[in-house]
Automatic annotation (TrEMBL):
GO terms for molecular function: DNA binding; DNA-binding transcription factor activity; kinase activity. It comes from Aromatoleum tolulyticum. Residues 164-238 form the HTH crp-type domain. This is cAMP-binding domain of CRP or a regulatory subunit of cAMP-dependent protein kinases. One of its GO terms (cellular component) is cytosol. InterPro entries: cNMP-bd_dom, cNMP-bd_dom_sf, Env_Response_Regulators, HTH_CRP, RmlC-like_jellyroll, WH-like_DNA-bd_sf, WH_DNA-bd_sf. CDD domains: CAP_ED (cd00038). PANTHER family: CRP FAMILY TRANSCRIPTIONAL REGULATORY PROTEIN (PTHR24567), REGULATORY PROTEIN YEIL (PTHR24567:SF26). Keywords: DNA-binding, Kinase, Transcription, Transcription regulation, Transferase. The keyword DNA-binding applies. Coiled coil: none annotated.
Amino acid sequence: MPVTATVREAHAAARPDTEHLCRLLAHVPLLEGFEPPELARFARGVREQNVERGAVLFHRGDPCHGFHLVLCGQIKLAFTSAEGQEKVIEIMRPGQSFGEAVMFMEKPYFVMAQALTDSRLLHIAKSVVFEEMDRDPTFCRRIIAGLSQRLHHLIADVETYSLLSGRERIVGYLLREEESSGEPGLCGRVSIRLPTSKGTIASRLNLTQEHFSRILHELAEAGLIVVEGRTIHIPDIERLRTTGARY
């Protein structure tokens, strides 16, 4: 599917609305503390993009001219083979950004990015990023902190794939989803809505979809979870935590 058919620039036919972009940028953690004139200066290099579900934002090998910030929706970053096989590297959610590393290296993208849901993003041109880094040491530190956190997560992923069983990976994933939901359960009972398909999550955890489904079935047989489509009910979250620590 052509990218241009499903990735729409919000201001393609008119001059970008600086005031509108500034309102969006004011909620970006990376720009926390920026005054209105600074946001307006930064907005010169920002484009708002509306991406339909299934649209490819960029392919591996495409040139990188900046980085993206997710406002709403989900973006999948993945490797793909000539045979159509796919390995999901990350699922980006609102508030998360991607593309900074290749932007600084001035290299083409080495993964593809595809919208898992209808999504809205900001594309921030590298020219305004470099200008702001020259001007503001605090902004530099935030950029470095974000890249360092990404590296930490990458190392944690390698540890997970190398040392943890499939069951441990899935239990750990469910526990992280429960923690990030911020919704307290009743008497230890919680429900988690999987953010995307089981196949995508399985690939993210370096498992086949069959292996992923088999482990969910085993956890359900043990009374640790109840599966209803993409909703996972956990009758006793502490018991699941104990199980995850034991295997």
